[in-house]
Amino acid sequence: WDFGGMGSTLRSFREITPEEGHAVIGLSFSPSGGSFLAVPASSRARVFDREGKEKLVTVRGDPYIQDMKRTKGHTTTISSGKWHPTLRNEFLTSAVDGTCRIWDING
Length: 107
Description:
With 107 residues, this protein is an all-beta fold. The protein has strands spanning 24-29, 35-40, 46-49, 54-57, 78-83, 90-95, 100-104. The strands form 2 sheets. The protein has a 4-stranded antiparallel β-sheet with strand order 1-2-3-4, with no helix packed on it. 21% of the residues are buried.
């Protein structure tokens, strides 16, 4: 975020790996700019604060339950994630399992 604070080498001053061994397929910044949502190619999304500290990891759904309404998280790879445009604590994820889930970072 602080491109003006970068040195002449233009190297990043922090690296974050949301989930080891999984490529990041999506990023979404919160409307307030205080957090960002990282969507690795897995069944769990992660929310970080602007300093890179992990604030939330979504739960993984139970892959043995066939009715997706009865499991609390995604059972397959998340395909996208976006913050709600006005509700600063909520975001939406969608996954290959055919579900969309709304999450609240306050629990």
